[in-house]
Design a protein that fits this description.
Blueprint (H helix, E strand, L loop, with lengths): L3 E5 L19 H17 L3 E5 L15 E3 L4 E3 L10 H12 L3 E3 L11 E4 L2 E6 L5 H13 L3 E6 L10 E3 L4 E4 L13 E4 L11 E3 L2 E5 L3 H8 L4 E5 L2 H4 L10 E2 L1
Parallel strand pairs: 1-2, 4-5, 7-8, 10-11, 13-14
Antiparallel strand pairs: 1-15, 3-4, 6-7, 9-10, 12-13
Bound molecules: glycine.
Glycine binds next to loops.
Length: 253
């Protein structure tokens, strides 16, 4: 179970966030409203939410998930692979320190963005992506093992982060899309195939029995509801325009 979450208010510079999408420029006022509803959804799942102030120096800083990995035993501050995001770690550290006695750090030349990390119990799958390199993944696995946790790497080539195409819903259920459907390491799970036209919804998030899903993806919503999960749709269209998903918008622990 999770009890807490950290989020960061979107900054006005959000409109300059890194993107590969061609969905247009985010509407800042709409993004603020959507972020507020996202916080409401986290609270509905029983989380106590710490809201950090907007940081206009970093357009992508609302995607707090990428800059730290919060485990039950320690927190690990990452070193984002996107050069414009690397200094986001400085401003998240004091907040992470408030909640954890043990805080580890990924050091250069290693890079890791925790959007590339999917937790399944005590095991952490780490995607090797354009943002997370082998050195960073090796450091992450060593740190996890130091705290009696385990990690393994997953290659990916089609999406930004591992969790862009995967969402673990607990109870062995794994949402998967595209290249992840055929990966040998995921065949042990009950794979829920997210249709390619709804690929964005693979990044749905289990929180204490409820699954948050992005609004507007009815086939994926039906797949999840058919398993008996309570669901909560959240409209995150303005964040989708800059390659951000539901999970990226919070640290949950
Ligand atoms: N815009 C989200 C990211 O690229 O990190």
């Amino acid at each position: 179970m999770f009890t807490k979450a950290i989020v960061r208010t979107p900054s006005q510079s959000l409109v300059k966030g890194i993107t590969t999408a061609s969905l247009g420029i985010p509407d800042y006022e709409k993004a603020l409203l959507q972020h507020s509803d996202y916080i409401s959804a986290l609270k509905e799942c029983g989380l106590e939410v710490t809201v950090l102030p907007a940081d206009d120096n970093f357009p992508d800083s609302t995607f707090v998930e990428d800059v730290a990995l919060m485990t039950p035993r320690c927190a690990i501050i990452t070193n984002p692979g996107a050069p414009t995001r690397q200094l986001e770690t400085i401003s998240i550290r004091p907040t992470v320190n408030q909640f954890y006695n043990t805080v580890e750090t990924i050091e250069p030349p290693g890079t890791v963005e925790a959007g590339d990390i999917m937790m399944v119990g005590d095991h952490y799958y780490i995607g090797l992506s354009e943002r997370t390199n082998q050195n960073g993944a090796d450091q992450m696995i060593n740190l996890l093992e130091k705290h009696q946790l385990t990690g393994s790497v997953v290659t990916l080539s089609e999406v930004l982060h591992l969790k862009t195409g995967l969402g673990y819903l607990e109870n062995n259920h794994l949402l998967a899309c595209g290249e992840f459907l055929s990966k040998p390491e995921f065949q042990q799970y009950h794979l829920l195939e997210v249709p390619i036209e709804e690929a964005y919804a693979a990044n749905s998030v289990w929180i204490n029995g409820t699954v948050l899903t992005p609004k507007g993806f009815p086939k994926t919503l039906a797949l999840i509801q058919a398993l008996g999960y309570k669901t909560r749709e959240v409209d995150v269209s303005e964040f989708q325009k800059i390659d951000g998903g539901l999970s990226c918008l919070s640290l949950r622990f």
